[in-house]
């Protein structure tokens, strides 16, 4: 099992970013895949989860702004982040089967 992330960067408040997580070693209908983030000085928190069946859950602070999708043909899960806020600044991780992606930095300036 391997998860390789890409995307992220520095944007201004109100802008958008898309994170990608390319997965290998399993198929989407076998596992749930989660997105997490860790802000400086804070614990890592779950942001969203897409289930085996494709249902998606979000924490309240990102609901309506973040969207998770997956492309089975590409073996990729996406985290589309719109209307970003400075409090979204964190390192973002994808996770499946106990394996973490390498993390990608998202920085939102006010």
Briefly say what this structure is:
The protein is mainly beta and 110 residues long.
What report would you give on this structure?
This protein has strands at about 1-5, 10, 15-25, 35-40, 45-50, 55-60, 65-70, 75-80, 90-95, 100, 105-110. The chain has about 110 residues and is mainly beta. The strands form 2 sheets. Strands 2, 4, 5, 6, 9, 10 and 11 form a 7-stranded mixed sheet that branches. A hairpin with a 6-residue loop joins strand 4 (about 35-40) and strand 5 (about 45-50). The model has no long low-confidence stretch (mean pLDDT about 95).
Globally, the shape reads globular
Strand content: over 45%
Q: Which segments are poorly predicted (pLDDT under 50) over 5 or more consecutive residues?
A: none
CA-CA gap between termini? 37 Å
What is the N-to-C succession of helices and strands?
EEEEEEEEEEE
Q: Percent of residues in helical segments? A: under 10%
Structural class: mainly beta
Question: Topology of this structure?
Answer:
Elements: E1 2-6, E2 9-12, E3 17-24, E4 33-38, E5 45-50, E6 56-58, E7 66-71, E8 76-81, E9 90-96, E10 99-100, E11 104-109
Parallel strand pairs: 2-11
Antiparallel strand pairs: 1-3, 3-8, 4-5, 4-9, 5-6, 7-8, 9-10, 9-11
């Amino acid at each position: 099992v391997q998860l390789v992330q890409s995307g992220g960067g520095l944007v201004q408040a109100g802008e958008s970013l898309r994170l990608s997580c390319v997965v290998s070693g399993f198929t989407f209908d076998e596992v749930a895949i989660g997105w997490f983030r860790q802000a400086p000085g804070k614990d890592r928190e779950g942001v969203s989860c897409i289930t085996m069946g494709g249902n998606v859950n979000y924490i309240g602070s990102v609901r309506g702004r973040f969207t998770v999708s997956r492309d089975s043909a590409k073996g990729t899960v996406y985290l589309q982040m719109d209307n970003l806020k400075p409090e979204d600044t964190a390192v973002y991780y994808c996770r499946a089967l106990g394996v973490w992606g390498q993390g990608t930095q998202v920085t939102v300036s006010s």
